């Protein structure tokens, strides 16, 4: 007997026999639902046999037969009624378990978020793609999908989405392009490290989404619920359906604050902050500028995260302020990194280690933040050193800067577009989807092994735009993404180690060494970060001008 757990209240399986009932009773099930009509298969026991055995074992049973491939709204209502009336936990079965999973999905559609439903059924091994529109529509069969259709649909209006839209329109102005994004505000997230260091004002990193959507591009102000790539459709919240000829997926990354026990409850107070949120970055500077003594912890979770250098940037800028104000000798800096190295590209490590030494910071590798008690000023870390058992350590703090764990958005990892780890599955060179020829992805959400930075998206946008225009013309890809990413490591106020690299850690500097030697802290790199990169972002990247963004060309075949 193959039992698959969908929720605390329900497990499902393929067809069972009366001989399985005792095992179900021992497993703690108190009720059984049969969703398979009698006589569907020649080797199928009658429901009455199952019911008799269940009664003998002290288990209630209910017959809710559903015709294969024809799960009606009434069937879902009947299943919901049975789940309410029967004692739990409940065990349901049909020929394969799919009907049971479908009935549960539809019955929960008005209670749970669609991504939660799709995640639960996917984990149990059931694909609900065939009823996703009904799930999004509250479990009922849609009567009017209200379809819209565009040449290009872009999911996500962040740096990658707006940049690729602008790049497409600059190449082919007649394209009918739509961006789907529910947000009102667009943020220049690379600026938040500077906000946390007291250099930028937070307001300068935010603009209204409407002011940034490229001219001639439609803005569909809605959240995406699901993808139907076989039908070239995106399903929105409320069950509206948007059709496309070609799709670009770039909704960014999910900051999983809830993955750390107690973190959500203490963010923004009790000395716990993060530059990964617009509203918290000013609190970072408030804490840093007000701290005269005590322990400051800076955390970094397992990869992947966006801007892998950001956790240590916060440490360096804080240490620099305490150094210049004479407080550093009274402050214990702890950098707790879930990984095993300070920075993934070794060429930049010597310069960074000099600043670790300057600020007398302790590097604690393989330390992953798992819990926080803000009021008690305590944090717990799982220490997972190679070839040793995981141990948990407690650390007290006066200030803690947290970089949250990061995962693919829920509606991505439960979709047909995702790889086994939940990221959009692409060819790392062309950024075309590995299985769907009319889908591309860029930015933080896709699975190419590059650094997740705004600079990476700046280079990816023209690559995707070039290749889509070539595809429209019936040609093979013409541009290749080399994995370029940039991480301006703010090691002190006024100096930056400008890390620029591609796939495999290959150095890809944008400037000659005599202008900026990226392996050393320079004033020129600081001026680039402080003065030049914001206008490059707002006036170049988001306008399709593609400054500092020239993808490699490949010969058309």
From TrEMBL:
A Gene Ontology molecular function term of the record: hydrolase activity
GO biological process assignments: sulfide oxidation, using sulfide:quinone oxidoreductase
Alphabetized InterPro entries for the sequence: BLH_phosphatase-like, FAD/NAD-bd_sf, FAD/NAD-binding_dom, Prot-tyrosine_phosphatase-like, Sulphide_quinone_reductase
Required co-factors: FAD
Keywords: FAD, Flavoprotein, Oxidoreductase, Quinone, Transit peptide
Coiled coil, from the record: none
Keyword flag tRNA-binding: no
Full protein name: TIGR01244 family phosphatase
Organism this protein belongs to: Halocynthiibacter styelae
Source species taxonomy: Bacteria, Pseudomonadati, Pseudomonadota, Alphaproteobacteria, Rhodobacterales
